[in-house]
Amino acid sequence: MKKLKSILILFFFFQGLSLNAQNVDSLSLDEINAVYITVYGQRVGFSNSIRIYVDYGQTENFFVKNNHLLKDKDGTPYQFNSMTDALNKFHQFDYELVSTYTETISSKNNSVRTYYVLRKMKVGEGVNK
User: Which of 23, 43, 40 is nearest to 31 (CA)?
Assistant: First the structure.
């Protein structure tokens, strides 16, 4: 019985972290007051993980580095296994994919970046119907 109780406590602890810990520019994803956001992913060094950058219309802050980077509550960049993993996380916060577009980052080495435009679903449309 103690083992089951411990497992349940750990489960709810990590569930709480996974749903409430994503922040952009010191706002949680729940607090962003925007219908549309644009996100893109960038590989982390030589790993298979990606970091997510979010644009909800916030102003650029010259003094705050990476204010578009999705971070946990401690300010550590959140890492995903893939863009699909990231889009599934945004869906938990009632965002849906509307469109994608690409932009050439460097013509020298043919680097392109794909942007994902997401829309905040209205009450009754999304996961939390």
Answer: 23
Tokens found for residue 44: 């982390």
Q: Residue 71 has which token pair?
A: 């971070």
Domain residue limits, the chain: 22-120
Instruction: Pull the structure tokens for residue 46.
Output: 């030589």
Section 20-27 average pLDDT: 54
Phi, psi at 91, each rounded to 5°:
-65, -35
Give the distance between the most distant pair of CA atoms in the chain: 62
Segment 14-19 mean pLDDT: 41
What residue ranges in the chain does DSSP mark as E strands? 23-24, 27-28, 36-43, 50-55, 79-80, 95-106, 111-120
- pTM of the predicted structure, to 2 decimals: 0.70
What pLDDT does 7 receive?
44
